[in-house]
Amino acid sequence: MPSLDSLNCRRELKVGDATYHYFSLPEAAQRLGNIDRLPKSLKVLLENLLRNEDGQTVQPPDLQAMVDWLDQRTSDREIQYRPARVLMQDFTGVPAVVDLAAMRDAMAKAGGDPQRINPLSPVDLVIDHSVMVDSYASSSAFHDNVELEMQRNGERYAFLRWGQHAFDNFSVVPPGTGICHQVNLEYLARTVWTKEEDGVTLAYPDTLVGTDSHTTMINGLGVLGWGVGGIEAEAAMLGQPVSMLIPEVIGFKLSGKLKEGITATDLVLTVTQMLRKKGVVGKFVEFYGDGLADLPLADRATIANMAPEYGATCGFFPVDEITLGYLRLSGRPDATVQLVEAYSKAQGLWREPGAEPLFTDSLSLDMGSVEASLAGPKRPQDRVSLSQVSQAFDDFLGLQLKPSAKEEGRLLSEGGGTAVGGNKQSGEIDYEDDGHTHRLKDGAVVIAAITSCTNTSNPSVMMAAGLLAKKAVEKGLQRQPWVKSSLAPGSKVVTEYFNAAGLTPYLEKLGFNLVGYGCTTCIGNSGPLREPIEKAITQADLTVASVLSGNRNFEGRVHPLVKTNWLASPPLVVAYALAGSVRIDMTRDALGTGKDGQPVYLKDIWPTQAEITQAIAQVDTAMFRKEYAEVFTGDEKWQAIAVPKSDTYAWQGDSTYIQHPPFFEDIAGDPPRITDIRQARILALLGDSVTTDHISPAGNIKADSPAGRYLRDNGVAQADFNSYGSRRGNHEVMMRGTFANIRIRNEMLGGEEGGNTLHVPSGEKLAIYDAAMRYQAEGTPLLIIAGKEYGTGSSRDWAAKGTNLLGVKAVIAESFERIHRSNLVGMGVLPLQFKPGTDRTSLKLTGKEVLAIEGLEGVELRPQMPLTLIITREDGTHEEVEVLCRIDTLNEIEYFKAGGILHYVLRQMIAN
């Protein structure tokens, strides 16, 4: 509906021959107060409220609160934000479309029109998460992997093609095109959006939410966006605003320039370390300072991409000449570029040199101080100088050999429990492969992957990798035989410019052949290692490494047998493939021996900035226009997929990929009454930094796991298990996979790895799924107890959905990551937070207690209200402690009372 425009700030903007209507921030400021120094990210939110003022969800006090933020530079005001569009990838997109299809069924069952379940704003779903690196280091790798992808995922892709035809405003970018965030950066985003409304063209900031946490990448282009869970994105599609508190904004001042030989990856790992140390969870970060004048758009996008790793909601870069230059380079129409410039300047969104907004807090970095870096062995914020990587690995290995209390507590409890060390022997082993004998040692690099939109979107680091490969080949260096190498760009444009620069043959010579256009190794789709190597690692219990140009390195994520994972720039990925081990000092030790018999060092093959700049000159607009000309068309395999034509989906009862979910079965009745939680048991007792990967893994399905047994019982051969991520359309697989990560540690079992728990009071050790089903049969509600940073990582709604289906009523943690906390509320699971000074350790919890949560029943629920946790121990003694209810907004209260956000939306639609 049109805005009430109570401030009378709607104006016209003439750009060339076109006239646009817009809601003028300077005009609004005449009535609200000066906003010159309001952070530009908050100006975008203010415009959003002005344009969507309806007297109900957005009222004049909300507008005033945005300006009053400047008084304290913080606010407890809840606002309702409506993004312009939604971005999805297929791992999160398939379950979202499953939910929408189930909501159509529920609407029809209630006597309503299923067509009312339709996206109201544009939705783009990019299929990028399904391609796996089965074939590599060969000219046929790309073709082979695409063939396997289509064989494995034909049913899922047919379902998405049905959705593309059944729903309005829903577009699918077919597989083999690129990674959603890079496609968004290079093609989908406009920086300023337009739509026709009442016969005029309305212009407003391009904004979005995405069902992937790295949606934040687009903030590098001046587009405000962040990741949300699939359930929240679905609600946004259906017209429900995103409920949020006006955020604190942390200013990050950049000055100076990167030194010769330092990459954008080194910069982003430094920024990530600084901001994670600062503590920016739930906050916006906005970059400013004179250093932006020389910071390329691709470098900005790399920094913005890793906002989830530094913990922020987003890392925003304002619009300036560099933004316009990238829009031109990537083939956006001239009219779009002209509108972006005119609109940004008219609205005070343009970056002016020397201007410094007022921030909640700030920090600064002289980019000249950045040094060559990696991050590892298992957290993206753990930056390590290049010269110290070998020592960092040895420190980690030493903990496995001989645990030391303090460091073991930090490093090894981050998988969700307290690990037991002391059994590992420092190792090496000989193995035979292809008729040759090789020696594999601790620290061996078994995966070297140029992967992920974080870096493959950046021509400077990609060209650096190609140039380093060229020099290495010319010197006579080769990839070590145990290294699985791969190149998976985020778009076809990368292949175009590698070919134009003549670098493709050199990359291929070192085994970095194209394996696919998708996320691959970055999300755990690294595929199997060669069988002799897997056997050697297992037999000698080796601690081996991956080096990847990705954004996450949580344990168990890249490959189940690879315990240490190191984030690095693409050229360093190539260098480590040559060295074959992380146990060398790249700044001093030779990578290998050249064809002249002389040692070759990293400095001998590292490209100069002048060489990189010359190579980047090959990138031109024609490449972008060629590759995106038919972005929604797909190849002949995609076109050949049969598409059923129907408004509701014809579910197949025997499908192991797509099943009707149980979430909306009783939607026509009243939601259940909120009651206290009584006689609850602890399903798992977990430590710090439990990620959504730990809660709901995306990778391999083990044959002896509950999910593996389910698939076998339904006639699926182990070779066809595919991954958890690919089966998110089937709740039967996903609930069995919840807490099934092989690296999760449950303190109820002494910290041993694997998704098991202790059933109480029987004392029987069971898979977490099996224990949960037994508790459900016994009528016992369940709780999860955890440490700090619970739910960090991917915006994985199945981490909340699976928790719900296991019968978990509440999660009590020391702190939550933003998206997962919201997802828990969105699925009707209560997030509770220990007060400072209280935790599972101070309470001496063992997992054998009976727990109760009181204070929910018969009261008016309110955000962040105190509740009482009552602990009854085995000896019958009681203890009461106060916990904080982390339902943070009034809207979330309504969602929780309805049983979840989609239940709330669907009940409203049925009622109307």
Automatic annotation (TrEMBL):
Cofactor: [4Fe-4S] cluster
InterPro entries: AcnA_IRP_Swivel, Acnase/IPM_dHydase_lsu_aba_1/3, Acoase/IPM_deHydtase_lsu_aba, Aconitase/3IPM_dehydase_swvl, Aconitase/IRP2, Aconitase_4Fe-4S_BS, Aconitase_4Fe-4S_dom, AconitaseA/IPMdHydase_ssu_swvl
Keyword Amino-acid biosynthesis among UniProt keywords: no
Top-level taxon: Bacteria
Keywords: 4Fe-4S, Iron, Iron-sulfur, Lyase, Metal-binding, RNA-binding, Tricarboxylic acid cycle
Signal peptide coordinates: none
Pathway assigned to this chain's UniProt record: Carbohydrate metabolism; tricarboxylic acid cycle; isocitrate from oxaloacetate: step 2/2
Catalysis: reaction(s): citrate = D-threo-isocitrate
Domain (Aconitase/3-isopropylmalate dehydratase large subunit alpha/beta/alpha) ranges: 75-580
Alphabetized PROSITE patterns for the sequence: ACONITASE_1, ACONITASE_2
GO biological process: tricarboxylic acid cycle
CDD domains in alphabetical order: AcnA_IRP, AcnA_IRP_Swivel
Coiled coil segments of this chain: none
Transmembrane region(s): none
One MF annotation (Gene Ontology) recorded for this entry: aconitate hydratase activity
One Pfam family this sequence matches: Aconitase_C
Limits of the Aconitase A/isopropylmalate dehydratase small subunit swivel domain: 709-836
E.C. code: 4.2.1.3
Family membership: Belongs to the aconitase/IPM isomerase family.
Function: Catalyzes the isomerization of citrate to isocitrate via cis-aconitate.
Stated name of the protein: Aconitate hydratase
